[in-house]
Amino acid sequence: MTTPVQPALDGTIPPPTKTAARRKAEDYETWIADVWPVYTGVAATNRTWTYAEIADEHRLPEPPDSHMWGRLATLLREAGYTRRVGWATSPRPTVHHSGVRTWTGTAAARKAAAA
After folding, report:
1. What distance in Å separates the CA atoms of residue 40 and residue 59, rounded to the nearest whole number?
2. Architecture of domain 28-114
């Protein structure tokens, strides 16, 4: 069943909209360009977080493939922005509250943000 679309006053049909929470990036490079500045900004704080928390808070797009979240975590850690802290349960119902890593930013991330 489809939801009916209300035409505009001039009779045109508006383009379909997708909420940011349901938006999915078209390719890996576009997705990384969208999410990288958010995660490096969070890494510049003393906060402990999970990737899903930040994605939900900032309404970030989903990657083309869900396994790319792990690649992002690896890239940020290898770039010196983040480090692993511990474990938590995921807030996302799609993963049935499975265990996920918690992260925090490094001194190098805070220094890079201050520069």
Report:
1. 16
2. Orthogonal Bundle (1.10)
Lookup: tokens for 100: 């996920």
Kindly give, in sequence order, each residue whose CB lies less than 8 Å from that of residue 107, ignoring residues fewer than 6 positions away. Answer: none
State pTM to two decimals. 0.75
Amino acid identity of residue 102, one-letter, is T
CB contact burial 19-44 (16+ within 10 A = b; e otherwise): eeeeeebeeeeebbeebeeebbebbb
Residues 28-48: tens digit of each pLDDT:
999 999 999 999 999 999 899
What's the half-sphere exposure (Cβ side, CA atoms, 13 Å) at 65? 7
Tell me if 88 sits within 8 A of 94, measured CB to CB: no
What tokens does 23 get?
């938006």
